[in-house]
Amino acid sequence: MPENRIFGDAKRLRALVEKARGLGPIHTAVVHAVDAVTLSGAIEAAREHLIVPILVGPEAKIRAAAKSANFDLAKYQFVNTEHSDAAAAKAVAMARRGEVQAIMKGSLHTDELMHAVVDETLGLQTARRISHVFVAEVPGYPRLMFITDAAINVYPTLEDKRDIVQNAIELAQALGVATPKIAVLSAVETVSTKIKSTLDAAALCKMADRGQIIGGILDGPLAFDDAMSEEVAKTKGIVSPVAGKPDILVVPDLDAGNMLAKQFEYISHATLAGIVAGARIPIILTGRADKTASRLASSAIALLLVRHGERIAGKAIR
Question: pLDDT grade, residue 318 (50/70/90)?
Fold first, then answer.
């Protein structure tokens, strides 16, 4: 499909794909790719030179799905496993050995994949808490919006939120936002002992002041209208370097984040991509309802994150 038809008005996500396309594809384990939707996303990302798919799962089922959708898989590598659990474990093992640089979720539950990722002995955890970041192109908003965490951490603690914020900052930097502005959201903009998210927001801002969070400009607690409108913030007497121009929205919990992201998508007609950060490698969480633009952008984000990490590591060595 022509790229302008795939992305429509999502020009910033399209630009990420264009930027990533010239960086060389990353080997990506596509976990339990037994349906046409997963295969289509992997094949499109391969055509755009974003990934080299390695199809991990029951080979007979993958080939049957490809045949029903008239996909040619002759050029792709297979790693045969018995079922989805084994596919997740195999993909994680491949990542630990350095055989793949990213993982793409296929036709299995997120919990099933993440169970293998967070395994204490055989998983891909680092010292940092793993978290998910939606990258949204919202019509009418002048920059990409990062929303976190709306898919992994259900009721994050303050320590979890510190990592969630740091993961999002580093992802934004990998995508070209040098010093992202972060709005830590709550229902109100004043600190209240009755609302835990306001206490967490205030603590996160002070942690940033003390160097426990680096690379971004934080403000919070901010209600959603304060965060999105500088005029509203001024009306309420809020002086903020973030109000009206946030790059990252940090939500109190998964419920709030998931609803916010889907409101952007289904009411504001945003295009969403997303990635799991904080693990040894990026994990592309694609959903059954995701469109081609979302799948391509998510693959591009994974590629940009990998190459950004390589540049940082190279500088550290020098």
Answer: low
